[in-house]
Amino acid sequence: MKELLEGEPDLVVVGESGSAQEAARRIPALRPDVAILDGRLPDGSGIDVCREIRSVDPSIKALILTSYDDDDALFAAIMAGAAGYVLKQVRGNDLVDTVRRVAAGQSMLDPAMTAAVLERVRTGPPKDRELEGLTEQEQKILELIGQGLTNRQIAEKMFLAEKTVKNYVSSMLAKLGLTSRTQAAIFATKHPQH
Q1: CA dist., res. 155 & res. 111, Å (int)
Q2: Fewest CB atoms within 10 A around its CB: which of 17, 41, 79, 163?
């Protein structure tokens, strides 16, 4: 792929990584216009890397290159903030075109698939599956975010340090595949805990 991209006069490869951990560390430092991420890496996924790098620098545009054409993977890519999702079987010139379009700020996600993902976000998957990965503290904090409380208010209510609450919020967002408190508040209202 490097040779394909470097063969284009307007494209420059600024770095490569062989692992999710290395990519997550190097991409924010290199600040590429587009980060092309393999869907499956030896120690993680391109989707996890996408989520991580966009939490550090939301301006980084990520393109997920994958062998898998399934709704769950596309959903995860969109929720992680990917600007594009391309199957590895793509022709070379189409990949180059996609990289240029993503660099120019276009979304390269299939509108029909995006609509299906948005519907899934609106209706939400079954409650138990989503919440079972959260600790009791994270579930309580999610509930309080849904009630509109700030980190400071949550800290006071739960007798925790505000920094501890921030850490819980970050962990909870990552586990739920969310990127903001607003998404967490919406999620909390759609998944009330009894």
Answers
A1: 41
A2: 163
CATH superfamily of 1-123: Response regulator (3.40.50.2300)
pTM for the whole structure: 0.59
Determine which helix (DSSP H) or strand (DSSP E) holds 40, and give its type and residue range.
Answer: strand 40-41
190 burial class (0-12, 13-18, 19+ CB within 10 angstroms)?
A: middle
CA distance 37 to 16: 10
Taking all residues of the chain, what is their mean pLDDT, rounded to a whole number? 86
Four-way CATH pick for 136-190: 3.30.70.20, 3.90.400.10, 3.90.226.10, 1.10.10.10: 1.10.10.10
Domain ranges of the chain: 1-123, 136-190
pLDDT in tens, 13-37: 999 998 999 999 999 999 999 999 9
